[in-house]
Amino acid sequence: MNFLSPAVLAGLGAVTLPIAIHLLNKLRVREVRWAATRFLLTAVKRDQRRLKVQDLLLLLLRCAVLALLVFAFARPTFQPADKIAMATGAPFTVAVLLDQSASMGASDGVQTRFEAARAQALNFLAAFPADSAAALFLVHDGYSGPVARPSTDIALVRRNVELARLGDRGTDFKPALHAAFEALRNVPGRREIHLFTDNQATGWSQLAAIRQELGTDPEIRAVIHAPASSTLAGGNLAITSLKPDTATPVAGQPFRLLAEIANFGDTPVTAVRVTLAIDGNAPSADAVVDQLAPGGSRYVPLLVRLPASGYHTLTASLPPDRLTFDNTRTFALEIAPPRSVLIVESRTGPAPWQGSGHFLASALVPVPPEQASSYYLQVERKTAAEVQASQLSNYSVIYLCDAGPLSPAVSTALADFVKSGGGLVVMPGEATPASVYASDPWVGLLPASLGLPLEPVDGAFAPGPYNHPLLTPWNDPAAGTLAAIRAARAYPLLEMPGRDADTILRLADGSPFIMSQAYENGRVVLFAAPPVPSWTNLPLHPAFVPLMHRLYATTARTTAAKLNLAPGEPFQAAVAIGGLNKDIYLRGPAADARPIAVGRVELVGNQAVVRIKDTAAAGAHAVFIGQNEHPDLLFAVQPPDGESDLRSFAADILDPAVATTPKVARAPSSEALAKKGGFSLPTDRQLWTWILCAAAVLSIAELLCALRASRSNT
Amino acid sequence: MAATHTLLDPDTLSRAEPLGLMARRVVEGYRVGEHRSPFNGFAIEFSQHREYSPGDDPRHLDWKILGRSDKYYIKQYEQDTNFVAHLLIDGSASMNFGSAKITKMHYARGLSACLAYLILQQRDAVTATLFDDRPRDTFQRTDSLGKIHNLCTRLTAFEPARPGNIRACLEDYAARLTSRGIVVVISDLLDDPEEFLHGLRRLSLTKSEVIVFQILDHEEISFTLDGTVRFLGLEDDTRLQTSPADLRKSYLKAFNDHQQTVRRACEQCGVHYTLCDTSRPLAEALSGYLAFRRRAG
Predict the structure, then answer these.
(1) Most exposed: A308, B117, B141, B210, by fewest CB within 10 Å?
(2) How many angstroms away from the CA of B104 is the closest CA of chain A?
(3) Sign of the alpha-carbon torsion through A473, A475, A478, A481
(4) What's the rounded mean pLDDT across residues A624-636?
(5) Are A22 and B246 in contact (CB under 8 A)?
(6) Four-residue CA torsion sign, B147, B150, B152, B155
(7) Do B245 and A713 touch (CB under 8 A)?
(8) How many helices (H) and strands (E) does chain B have?
(9) End-to-end CA distance of chain B
(10) Residue whose C-alpha is closest to residue A66's, from A14, A121, A131
């Protein structure tokens, strides 16, 4: 405990007043010659002890009342001594850290924690003594340093605090504390770090390292200004995840998303309605979660029919609560135009079913022939001899399904095709000379080398569980099992050491059946057998169609752009070369946001690239190139799911002796809510009102004691 | 004369004189007066006969009975007589206390003088004794009103200085009392009430009528002192510094207990008890008592 007005403590001398008055009364004695002394002596004998105790009690009460009054006027506080010293005017150097992570958006109904923390930081700076210096760091999962070096221009620091805005990024105190520590390390005099935050527990994931670093220079003190309560009235529901459950988004086709709804409150919630809107329009789908226990989460499927090809955003929403950033989550996707795939096969006759790619083609276009032209996949079937190297770039994926030997030119073109982002699926069969794949460019292109075909002892597919994302649907028994699939014949896939290849599926005997490998911008998938019944019953199995579609989705050439980003993660996408040097405008997720110029299209290598760094705000972002009215690109920033968990540590968490257990969630007290600004800071609380109340209570007690004594003596 | 004027308050005497001081009991006197005598003598009114016994004065023989029946009977008579009032005045040091203009001693002097005046005026006799731990000054019996001045002078001249011992004094006086009369005890009775009771019992055994006037200062009764006071005992070495306000309740309880004991002792001995508060006029206290006495017969 410290005092804001310690000089008033000199008034503690007033405590001697009652004692002095008591003694003066004792000294001011009147002598009386008295006859009836026997009654006096009887009375004294009877009451002496009571009177002494009573006198002593009254004296103590009076002294205590005076002492409490003096204490109250000295304005005792839990503020650390350094803040008190600040009020005394001694210059010092401070690094102010203002938490602008998403969790600071929690509101008490009047203002957010960020607003309260910012106001407190401004008050803190307003009381700065002359010649003191301050640096400013804005804290999220990284940090930014508007005033990275301590500056005596406090007005500049205050202005930057005023300009600070709440972000949607996560929390990690380590980088900012490290930066602040480094900024103060070589500064002479008293140095302090003041962190204005909600002290969210997830931000202290590197607590041990932080403590260790701060311990290297104990003269740099770190003070945390955190609210007393970590919970929100009414709880907090959040969408912590939004991911597709359909392999390939196809225009006009149903598309399934899985939204994970989590309850971070301390009471169960019921009938939670989740909606899904496309491109910010009215909700197209919704679902209701019947009940969600405290701390629980649930995946909710949302099914929508996708619009036309192009970039789109899907936004899932929850009813609003006091932490808004996690009530919506946006997923951006690109619906590709109808794509062509090429199946290179061997044929035994002119009929389609006489080609080795018949089953594969049927699986890729599983619709009646009259609808095939409108299907998003257009399949072309050719023999190896018909393939022309110059036409390969027209396809997104090329399947070599028991294809005959390819010319070296085609082989080289295939390698280039994969390098540029194309997908290649190699399914060697009887017509495939394994020796061909032992030469360049196939040695580097394929994830494994091929042996001679043989009949496996146990050709069954390995039963689950499957770890590869391609096969995870078959971990659900309701989706059937792949263990019923057998391979009568198969090429041994010989894994090559040092090769970064995935084994997607193995046979029961452990030998690989499907392997995959990234090759520059593209991907190559190698099967041990072609999808023909003479080799395997895979094409006859119900899993064949979804497996082929999922395989297509993972290997197809799509835009290289990553459309769903974490806050702060830069966005980068290749665009048509015609856009080079045009201005880039970005429209943020805010409802009233307008496009803002953020740079120009750059030339990277031989591609025109859009680069955007400012992606702090969660939600859908639209990118305009040049003066286009409609966005050329859409991407989404998804907030970190950990920010929704508002559990926090105590303000003394930097003390190595303090246990790192987050506070138990509890409802904020009415006192905390009533406190101005709703931002109750125990490290900052002044006690004078409580002490005045105590003095009043003691005064009343003294009065009652005096009255009682007076009554008992009359 | 100055002492007489001081002690004999005209107002007191004018209010008390009509009431007089009638002997409530039969008193022994030495001359014919207004009061009945216990002696059956030769005087006025026949009372009874009794058989002659050797040693009787033959002058009291009833010669008529002797003549008729040849038996010896003595005639006995009732006779009116005056009484002797014994004023026992406490002159112990405690009587020197007075919170107002007058002390208890002054009040006792006035009361004694007024009583003596009334008694002498009705041709009864008075004797007065001032005592503390023993009888100090005795004013010899007189029935002359003219001697009242001497009495007043003696009363005024006495200054209380010693501690009292009322039991010893009362017992001593009772032992020396040769005839029944009225014994008036004037004291503050601040001694041990048990001691007082013993003395009073001894006095009542003399078959004299005993009247007790307790003289107390108003402050002793109400104990309204404030502030810090150092009390100095008048009769002992007590030195006590305290806040009277704190002790008031306990003091008054002890005082009232004492008063109850005194009153009970007086009742047990058939003694008239009168409390005189020095803050009240003497006339009021004296006339009040005499009126009560007249009513009681």
Answers:
(1) A308
(2) 10
(3) positive
(4) 87
(5) no
(6) negative
(7) yes
(8) 10, 10
(9) 35
(10) A14
Which two three-digit tokens encode residue A86? 């600040």
Rounded Cα distance, A506 and B272, in Å: 131
ipTM: 0.77
Residue A500 has a CB neighbour count (10 Å cut-off) of 7
State which of A211-225, A303-317, A635-649, B212-226 shows the largest mean pLDDT: B212-226
The alpha carbon of residue B282 is apart from the nearest alpha carbon of chain A, in Å, by 21
Residues written for chain B: 297
Q: Looking up tokens 């010659």, which residue turns up?
A: A33
How far apart are the C-alpha atoms of A248 and A553, rounded to whole Å? Answer: 6
Rounded distance between C-alpha atoms, residue A508 and residue A529, angstroms: 15
Angle between helices A37-73 and A688-712 (to 10 degrees): 170
Which of B247, B252, B260 is the mutation pick for testing A, counting most A CBs within 10 A? B247
What Å distances lie between residue A644 and A105, A109, A235, A597, CA to CA? 10, 17, 11, 32
Using a CB–CB cutoff of 8 Å, tell me whether A714 touches chain B: yes
Helices (H), chain B: 2-7, 10-16, 63-69, 104-121, 148-157, 166-176, 193-204, 218-222, 244-268, 282-296
Strand pairing class (A133-139; A93-99) = parallel
Q: Exposure of A439 by Cβ count < 10 A (0-12 exposed, 13-18 middle, 19+ buried)?
A: exposed
Residue type, A115: E
Cis before A447 (ω within 30) = no
Does B6 contact chain A (CB < 8 Å)?
A: no
Q: Does A49 touch chain B (CB under 8 A)?
A: no
Residue A37, C-beta contacts closer than 8 angstroms, at least 6 positions apart = B231, B233, B234, B235, B236, B238, B240
Which amino acid type is present at position B276? C
State whether A33 and B97 contact (CB < 8 Å): yes
Distance from CA of B116 to the nearest CA of A (A): 27
Q: pLDDT at position B15, please? A: 64
Instruction: Kindly identify which residue of chain B lies nearest to residue A33, measuring between CA atoms.
Output: B232
Q: What is the pLDDT of residues A379-434, one digit of tens each?
A: 899 888 888 877 888 888 999 998 888 888 888 888 888 888 888 999 998 888 77
Chain B residues within an 8 Å CB radius of A32:
225, 229-232
Question: Distance (Å) from the C-alpha of residue B149 to the closest C-alpha of chain A?
Answer: 30
**Closest residue in B to A32 (Cα–Cα):** B231
Q: pTM, whole model, 2 decimals?
A: 0.52
pLDDT digits (tens, 9 = 90+) for B57-83: 888 888 888 899 988 898 876 555 567
Count, residues in chain A: 714
Strand, coil or helix: what is A496?
A: coil
Please state, in angstroms and rounded to a whole number, the distance separating the CA atoms of residues A232 and A264. 10
